[in-house]
Design a protein that fits this description.
By secondary structure, the chain is mostly helical. Helices cover about 65% and strands about 5% of the residues.
Amino acid sequence: MIIWLFLLFTMLPVLEIAVLIRVGSWLGFWETLGIMIAMGFIGAWLAKREGRRAFFEIQAAAARGQMPANEILEGFMIFLGGLLMVTPGFITDVVGLLFVFPPTRKLALHVMKRVIGRRIVFQTMVYRPQHPNESFRRESVQMRDVTPKPAKSGGPEESPV
């Protein structure tokens, strides 16, 4: 975790400055500045539009009595993408656009769920007395995806009648 924070707060700004200098020398100062300002406005507009849509999807899922887990994750990704797009720099703009733009957000959401799913550890307190003096003990339980998989077509549960 420390390495990721180090890379985020030291190497990313260095890379952003290097890219800004390269693009500025290729396009010119004013054009580079204009692109950065335009990306900030586009990012804010797109994040607002997609964030509003995600908010209504969260409300609709809750109204149906479903847990809006995917909708909440999408909302978080939209927020993060909008934040990255408002941050000055081309690298953060590209990553932010990937999080805000709906087709690439779906792909990023799928990848994020797989990465998070492998690392989640559920902490709980359980009552399992082993000795007379022991009442509660902390256990870590690895969470697994237990959602039912769709049945394959042509199986024994389907008949061609």
